[in-house]
Amino acid sequence: MGMEEHTATIMVIHRMNKNNEILTLVQLFSSSFPVGSFAYSHGMESAIDDGLITNANDLEQWLSCLLTQGGAWSDAAFLNIAFDVESSNVHYINSYAKAFASSNERLKETELQGHAYCEAVNSIWDLNLKKLCYPVAVARSANALNLSIELTTIMYLNAFVVNMCNVAMRLVPLGQTDGQQVQTSLKQKVLMVASEIKGVTLDDLFSNTFMSDIMAMRHETQYSRIFQT
After folding, report:
1. Cβ neighbours of 30 (radius 10 Å)
2. DSSP string spanning 92-114?
3. Rounded to whole angstroms, how far apart are CA atoms 168 and 177?
4. Alpha-carbon distance 218 to 81, whole Å?
5. Cα(64)–Cα(98) distance, rounded to whole angstroms?
6. Which pLDDT score, from 0 to 100, does residue 20 have?
7. Strand runs labelled E in 137-219
8. What is the largest CA-CA distance in the chain?
9. pLDDT digit of tens for each residue in the chain (229 aa)?
10. What SS3 state is found at 84?
11. Are residues 127 and 144 in contact, defined by beta-carbon separation less than 8 angstroms?
12. How far apart are CA 17 and CA 15, in angstroms?
């Protein structure tokens, strides 16, 4: 085999590996993957009920804040922190992530989805993940499956945006086109956060989305509810 043929073969293998990585992540964050994400609104059900989100612009601003200053940002941070941490420290990071949940429902949201995620990836890929909260579980599976941490973060954040748009489409209600337009508008923000969050540490964690946290707390006693959170 000549040098050109050898180089071409390496490029084909690399492309196939990259495509397989993308397909694996699409599978992990598909709405059909059994984590039950459709059952959670991240407190948005109360925000919509209180009239804080009434149209596509409100939804975009709400999600933009979560991506840059709230629960979506901190989840992405924990995902990156837990990705290549030593196994002996995973429990500590997981405990930290649970402590960072701002309410009982936020804790339930990350724990139940994480436990379901661990059960699924353990069965499908023969991994041995213990019960972890959702972003930590995703991090450890991505590490075990040799997935790119940046691409995993992008797909994780995009799946969050998609799920929240689906919540709004059901409750506001918004049309499907409005929901897709919001997703399109937030793509650059998803990419920006995934890029900027590289190298983040526990000391960098913060959250400024107090209204979202309050809505998640109020949801616990909301009279009529469709979503678990």
Report:
1. 12
2. HHHHHHHHT--SHHHHHHHHHHH
3. 12
4. 30
5. 23
6. 86
7. none
8. 72
9. 555 543 443 444 445 566 889 999 999 999 899 999 999 999 999 999 999 999 999 999 999 999 999 999 999 999 999 998 888 899 999 999 999 999 999 999 999 999 999 999 999 999 999 999 999 999 999 999 999 999 999 999 999 999 999 999 999 989 999 999 999 999 999 999 999 999 999 999 999 999 999 999 999 998 888 898 8
10. coil
11. yes
12. 5
Q: Which helix (H) or strand (E) holds 131?
A: none
Q: Is the pTM of this model over 0.90?
A: yes
Residue 138: per-residue pLDDT:
98
Q: Residue 153's closest CA among 81, 53, 69, 70?
A: 81
> Whole-angstrom Cα distance, residue 158 to residue 189?
10
Q: What is the pLDDT of residue 225?
A: 86
Entry field: residues in the chain = 229
Burial zone of 42 (CB within 10 Å; 0-12 exposed, 13-18 middle, 19+ buried): buried
Contact 186, 161 (CB under 8 A): yes
Mapping DSSP to helix (H, G, I), strand (E, B) and coil, where does residue 29 land? coil
List, in order of start, the domains of the chain with CATH numbers.
Answer: 3-219 (1.10.4190.10)
Provide the token pair at 106.
Answer: 């936020």
3-state SS, residue 223: coil
Q: Is the sign of the CA dihedral 19, 63, 201, 141 positive or negative?
A: negative
Contact 213, 103 (CB under 8 A): yes
User: Which residue type is seen at 229?
Assistant: T
Tell me how far apart the alpha carbons of residues 168 and 190 are, in angstroms, rounded to a whole number. 19
